[in-house]
Write a structure and sequence with these properties.
Layout (H helix, E strand, L loop, with lengths): L7 E3 H11 L6 H10 L2 E8 L2 E8 L5
């Protein structure tokens, strides 16, 4: 799976990508820290009354 070339990634995809690369059990803190290191940030959006969480590329710091 090549996540680093995508602009938007679901939380589940980021969790599986983390599990493939590291021997540690994935939890929200570890996944969030890893996502920040590779240039993503967590975003939440409400669609039809449901909150959806996903990661997007953070281009503000570059």
């Amino acid at each position: 799976m090549d996540i680093e070339n995508k602009n938007r990634v679901s939380v589940e995809d980021m969790r599986t990508y983390y599990a493939e690369r590291f021997p540690y059990a994935p939890n929200n803190q570890r996944i969030g820290r890893f996502a920040k290191q590779i240039g993503f940030r967590l975003t939440k959006q409400m669609v039809k009354g449901q909150i959806i969480s996903f990661y997007i590329k953070d281009n503000t710091g570059k």
